[in-house]
Amino acid sequence: MQADIFCRVVDNYGDVGVCWRLARQLARDRGWDVRLWVDDLESFAHIQPGLAPTAPRQRLAGVDVLHWTDAPDPALCARDVVIEAFACDPPATFIASMRRTHPVWINLEYLSAESWVESCHGLPSQRPDGLVKHFFFPGFTAATGGLLREPGLSAERDALQASAPLQDSFLRAVGVPEDALALRQAGARTVSLFCYPSAPAAELAQALAADPRPTVLLVPQGVAPALESACGAPGAPRVVRLPFIAQPDYDRLLWCADLNFVRGEDSFVRAAWAARPLVWQIYPQEENVHLEKLDAWLARYPAPEPAHALIRAWNQPQPGRTAAACADALAPAAWQAWLDAARQWDACQSALPGLAENLAVFCTELAKKR
Ligand code: TRH
Questions:
Q1: How many structural domains comprise the chain?
Q2: Phi and psi dihedrals of 103, rounded to 5?
Q3: CATH number of the domain encompassing residue 289
């Protein structure tokens, strides 16, 4: 199969993060010939070291990466499959070529745990020009497109989680200093923090400082910039700033942490595969629509009530609420229940077929009917 994936970077790194992960999987695991068109290579380079932000075309991890500009090369025509991510609309000249070849056309939607997704997943939309676009919804049930997950991920994760020396050498390689590694070896909790500016990070620091177990807090550069000033008191977390690292290394970082604060779409899914407690900050939308989506996910996530309360507080900050909720969620009984729930969440979600697999099967079936 020959496929073109179109990605417009709306904000941050999730749009390109999802497309890049999908492109690599279709190329590596399904043997597809994939061209990935991205309009913002600067953002892409942030999460993919080695990507040249000014190159019009480059080959990386078995994928042809194209800079999607206002004047795309008219010689590049549609082939078997066209995937537009998040309703981004392929360029007009490319759609003209689609009218000639009638490829399978997929709109890959954003992830939501809401139940309506099941009834919309896979539906066709007939256009006046004769082309048909199919909606493909990621999701948490067998009646959706599933979640991106690479084969062999659990075994790789289990091996790292079972070995303290492997974790040390990985963390050292991504820039965690020796004093922080020593704290971990002495029993400190490891927390990773990736959040939006609205997150009550100072309250999190306060709650971790009040907890008897010390904390090493791993934070990407530029995220929660005021954290250091909230971490001056004795017992406060040891904040370690890390550069942005490539997606497979970010996975490993999540696997090494006891608790992961994640955001958006892709890091949220990756934290599930760590099989460790996670706190999700959902991407904020107008009129608080995102809070309904958060509730839909919480209704599926089997964590105990104190963990749910912390996740709600993290998304709707009010003075004192996050610090109190964090203390409750870290209390021994709640924490143990959360650990069990995280393992259960990973096990039940990873038992479902992955998104790349579902999408490949869906496209192959449609291609047969062309
Ligand atoms: O960056 P995000 O907030 O992205 C998005 C976008 O804002 C998008 O417009 C919105 O619609 C969507 O959220 C819901 O969060 P996300 O989705 O977690 O994407 C971050 C990506 O960056 C993800 O692929 C993981 C990757 N990453 C690394 O590869 N290395 C790192 O060090 C870090 C911190 C992240």
A1: 2
A2: -75, 170
A3: 3.40.50.2000
